[in-house]
Design brief:
- The structure is a homodimer.
- The longest helix of chain A is centred in the last third of the chain and has 31 residues.
- Chain A has about 260 residues and is an alpha/beta fold.
- In chain A, strand 4, helix 3 and strand 5 form a beta-alpha-beta unit.
- Chain A is elongated, with a radius of gyration of 23 Å.
- Helices cover about 45% and strands about 15% of the residues of chain A.
- Chain A has nine helices and eight strands.
- At the A-B interface, helix 5, helix 6, helix 7, helix 8 and helix 9 of A face helix 5, helix 6, helix 7, helix 8 and helix 9 of B.
Chain lengths: ~260, ~260
């Protein structure tokens, strides 16, 4: 097992959870930089022996790996400004940004270290169960990132920038859109003074089933059973209340109708 | 606490789970009728002291409540054929069919007794957590159904046929469409040789968050944060691969963009 000295750029949720996980795995979190000093110092205070870094000139740093864990839109700016020691590994943690965002002069050892999970301030996460997607510009960086990943998680997968985009699209459907289906459901119920709570046991059971036996086999509902009478009734009701919802209902139902031939 | 004598018409998943729950709550499952004798007898054999009924003439039955737990499309046919004692309560268990489907000569005490859950053969369910939606044509039947419901579940709600339709539409969005979002996600990943397993920890966390803090507050993703660059990139990729998916992506993203003004 190799242990790394790591510097973290950023002090948000990803930075915080990652810093904790790194320390728990025996690595040394050397420095934390944050645009907002108070946030950076707050994170530093929760770590074992970490110093707050005033600027992005890390030329004198002894760290092996520099992790840029800032918002997607700030990655390029940080990558252009940061100075790291030659041979150090420089990564970002974004699911949406390309490896190319890290093009810069100081190291060729660039990569992506993307923990496939959503992080919130309050909730603890078990990093061991989080898939970590790694990508690197060269073999040396890839080897380092795989070693780092395996020290944190049981599941480390090599994924290139194109695959990471596709993974992100898949996640938009499975997570963001799923959540918006809940939001629509809640809106519909609220408009008739019914409580979304009522649906929760059914939602939990449906989702567990979909994840257990696979969504193809778990599909149910009027579109799946070609119940055109119910589909028409629902569509008419929605058309009279919210045309966008009616169109969303129509297009998803149509896709289910097409996918599951009798 | 009143205990009822109950006859069940049907031998599928709902009939089976309901029969068990009724016995566990102290009621007496008097008779089971099923169009398919072997299925009916299989259910009877799992119950305490229940007889198999050959036909739908229950005029000599001593049951208080008759529960039609058959497929939606068969309810009307059963309701037209069944003979029940005067004053008995006759209900169906469907989330989609109206109370009017039970119009018939023998009793005015008709109703709907709809457990809001999906049932499968193998899996045990905790009826106590399942909301039961009741509706009835008159006060006598309503009182009986509420008493029966409360003996099985902590949550019994009175919901009329119009509300039940809206509840069903909400469930289509929150359950059936959510499951189809998983199916789409899996398809996208499979087309690029990636494994849906990879997304599961993120899905579970996202859904738990949505149900805990509410889907409005839990919304994330490129549309939520108005990341038009990512939305365009995803849309372009989908357009080149599957125009229906591109359109689903566009219309749901647009609704999220519209809902969450910055």
């Amino acid at each position: 097992m190799s242990y790394f000295k790591v510097s973290i750029i950023g002090s948000g949720n990803v930075a915080g959870h990652l810093a904790n996980a790194l320390e728990n795995a025996g690595h040394f979190v050397n420095e934390v930089y944050s645009r907002t000093r108070s946030h950076g110092e707050a994170l530093v205070s929760k770590l074992y022996d970490t110093s707050y870094k005033e600027d992005l000139d890390f030329s004198e740093s002894t760290s092996d790996i520099f992790i840029i864990a800032v918002s997607d839109s700030a990655i390029k700016e940080v990558a252009e400004a940061i100075i790291v020691p030659e041979n150090a590994i420089l990564v970002h943690t974004s699911g949406t940004r390309s490896l190319e965002d890290l093009n810069q002069y100081y190291t060729e050892n660039t990569g992506v270290f993307y923990p496939l999970q959503t992080f919130s301030k309050i909730k603890k996460v078990d990093f061991g169960e989080i898939p970590i997607c790694v990508e690197a510009k060269n073999k040396a960086a890839l080897k380092g990132l795989k070693t780092l990943g395996k020290s944190l998680s049981k599941k480390v997968v090599e994924i290139d920038s194109q695959q990471r985009m596709i993974l992100h699209i898949a996640a938009v459907f499975a997570c963001n859109f799923t959540n918006h289906m809940f939001a629509i459901s809640e809106e519909i119920l609220r408009s008739k003074n019914m409580d979304f709570e009522l649906l929760k046991p059914l939602i939990v059971e449906t989702i567990n089933k979909g994840l257990e036996i696979g969504p193809g086999a778990a599909q149910t509902g009027p579109a799946k059973r070609k119940d055109l009478e119910t589909l028409d009734k629902h569509y008419d009701f929605l058309t009279n209340n919210d045309e966008t919802l009616a169109e969303i209902y129509r297009i998803i139902s149509q896709r289910i109708l097409d996918k599951y031939e009798i």
